[in-house]
Each structure stands twice: as C-alpha cells, then as structure tokens.
Amino acid sequence: MSDVYSTICPGCNFGCGLYIRKNADLAVDFRKSSPANAGKLCRFGVSLPRFFAPVKSTLDGKKITLDNAAKEAAKRILASKDSVAFLSSGNTTCEELLAFQKIAESYLCTGVNFEALPKDTYQTISVGIPYSEIEAAKHIVLFIDPYEQYPLIVRRLLSAKSKGAKITAVWWKDLPLADENIRPNDTSKLTLTKDSLIIADFHPFSDMEQVKNVLSLAKNSGTKITFLKPFANSTGAYILSKDAKQKSLAQLVDDINKGTIKTLFALESDPSVLIPPETLSKLTNLIIQTGQAVPAKANIVIAHEPLYKKKGTLINNEGRMQALGGSGINGLYVLGTIVGAKFDFNELHESVKKAIGITEINEFTVPKYERPGYGAIQAAPKALEAKPVLIDVYNPFTWFNLADDNDFVELNLNTVRALKLLKGGTLKIKSNGNVVEKRFKVAPVQDNILLTGNRFGIEKGIITPVEISR
Ligand code: SF4
Fold first, then answer.
1. Among 13, 35, 361, 444, which one has the highest count of C-beta atoms within 10 angstroms of its own C-beta?
2. Is the pTM higher than 0.70?
3. Interval 221-232: pLDDT, tens
4. CATH number, domain at 238?
5. Atom from ligand 1 closest to the CA of residue 152
6. CA distance 422 to 406
7. CB 146 less than 6 A from any atom of ligand 1
8. Sign (positive/negative) of CA torsion 76, 79, 83, 87?
9. What is the Cα–Cα distance from 311 to 330, expressed in whole angstroms?
C-alpha cells in the first residue's frame, strides 16, 4: 500500500505539478492535468527522490526531537536579540512564509537584491505573465538559456515558434531554437517593438545592472517583460513581503563578516548555496528549518515533513496559485515555537488569499494581478573584457547541490585551437589561486567564454575571470 501526494516540484519556480508515491522508497508519477507543465518534467523533476533525502533534527550534530530543536532554537534566537537574521528564498508554502515574515521583522532576507531596484519595478519582477501569453507572443527575446535553466519553458517557446513567433537569444552561446543570436555585449543590435516579449530571470546572483538594463530596454520600447525565478514559490515570497523591509544577500554576507549578525535562521533554504563557507563559519549559531537533508553544517537542524507532505499553497512564475496535497503543518508549529506564539493555518491561508485578491484556490485560473508601469531606469551594464571568464549558468541541480552530469565546460573552436586542446582531453582553469581540470565540449560559444552548468569551487559569483591552459 503506498501513499500518493499530488504536489509541486521544488526545483524552480516554474510550478510543475506531479505525484510523489511513497512506498519503502519515493517514486515520481506524472500529472498530466497540471496546467503549468501538462505532466512533463525536466531531469531535476524526475530525480526528485534524490532531492528529498531524509533529515533528522539535531543539536550540534546529535539527534534530538523536533520539539527540543525548536525550543533550543527559540532560546538562542532570543539570546541573540539584535544580531539575528532570517533567510528564506521561498521553497515553502505561502502560509509558512507569512508566519516567517512575522518573526523576521527585525532582519528579513529573501536572498535577492530588491534594494538595488526602484520600488515601482517590484511587482513587474515579482509576478510574471501566464505561460499562455508566451505561446501567443510574436517576438520572444531570451535573456536566459531555457534548455539549461528553465527546461519546461522550451515547449512553450516551440509552440510560439510553430505559430510564427521569431525568437531572439541574447546569450553567450547560440541557442538551437533561436532565429537570431545576439551576444549580451551587443544589445544595441536588438530590435524591440510592442509585439516583443522579453524573458529574463531574477535570482540571488543576478547582476543588478543587467536586470536594470532589461527593465530599461522593455520600458523604452513598450515591450512586455517577464522574469523567471529559480526557487519554488519565490513569487509567493516576493509578493507576500512586498511591504516588508528586506535586506539583500550581499548585505547579509557583509553583516555576518562584520560580526553584527551572529545567528542565522534559514527557513527551507540551504545557506551553503548562497553564502560563502568562510562567512558561514563566522556565525555563532546557524539554525536550519528544513524538510530534507541539506549540506550546510548547522548548529541546530529542525527537521519536519518535506514539501510534498505539507499543507498549503505555492505561487509559480505566472502568479498561479497551487495547493499542495499534504496535511503537514509542523513547519508552522516550529515557527510558532520560535516566536512564542501559535500560528493558525486557516487564518494564514485566508490572509494569503486576501493578499493575492482571490477567494478560492484554483490552479487552472491565473489570478489577475495589477501590473503597474515603472519609471525610466538608468542602467550601466558592464561589458566583459576580452579575457577568459567562466560563466556559471545556474540550473536546478546547481542550486540544490545535487550531483549532476554537468561536470564540463563549453567553449568554442577558436579557444580549443588557441590552447591546442586534445579531443577527449581536459583543460586547466585557474582562479583565485585554485586550479581545476575539467572536460570540455565544443559549442557555439562567444570567444573567451567558458560556460558551465556546474560549480567548481573557484567561482566568484556568476562571472569569474580565469586563466586557462592545456
Ligand atoms: S525543476 Fe523546474 S522545470 Fe524542472 S520539473 Fe521542477 S519545476 Fe519543472
């Protein structure tokens, strides 16, 4: 006898619906009725049993009960007073995120840098447009690599193309589905009209000048723009915290380094993919509330049910509200223990619906969102110098530290010839005093660019200057 949960993939904010079947092991079943993905899943989605690795509550590495872990966390947070920060990039229900916001008033970090953007762009970045509008677009301009980063959008793009849409890719590599390929340094070659649609993305390591640049390109040409996001329910996290004062990830890292933040409480977000290890090691208390094992070494792990067993709602890139099929509310219980209160699921659920402006959850209808315009934006995107750089093309596997088969770099034939690289061989990549030796693939990539969907431990953000040799 198995338990079957109708749920949403936590791999990114695309919002793919699926079933998780639980016997002795977990298995994934396709849910064809899911409006976001019509049953299809990317390779991360089909690998979900790996993501949901079991986790136990611990205190300094020793097993304890959930209750005791939550109480100890509450004690340490209280003792830390003004030196505690709260981090959540989404990855959990709207109801938990609303409760989290109440306890995180003193220092809330959603992992992204809204501080660097004009307030009037907040809604445009937070909520995207329905995928059906992507399929109906006449000209689509991609500032992402859909195959690598948001694979389920590819079928929407192909559908638009089959109806006559032109696709322009503004990327470091020629993309097979694009009719026109423009390099990110050459956006002056881009022709945008009111019939165009820009697809960009927004995440903790976004280059904010580049985000401003795409907003400005859209503003100046009257082009529609939509942002995709890498964490499940990032849209919910941003909408629900739109009036909250938020700190950026850079600020959080800075404050930990300075010693003004000594305790970090992370809700369903693995700090080790966001914060450098040398910074994390400066914390007195790292407390992680989670539903699955994470690599970060925490002083306290408060382990409760995984996402597929939770009760509550998520919001995807389109703004579509999606209900999870579980009944677990231990996450709310823990958050209540932290703050010395009792959170009521139904009350929070009603508040979530009110914040979105709906009376019932229906995944087949995208709620109507206000899409206010925004003012003129000055952007100064930095052009890449003519030196080799390693570009980390993040994807669901990268964010969640899961082993993947992306352990290679892509580079073009000019670079291969210049370095006299041997077919089937490797190249050495040096940065920040570290050297890694990696396999390579020849691809139609811009000169001096190495693209990878993996992390090699030598990166400084998304774009890292490197030295390369045979
Ligand atoms: S990682 Fe994203 S695109 Fe892939 S199955 Fe999950 S939600 Fe869908």
1. 13
2. yes
3. 999 999 999 999
4. 3.40.50
5. 3
6. 20
7. no
8. positive
9. 10
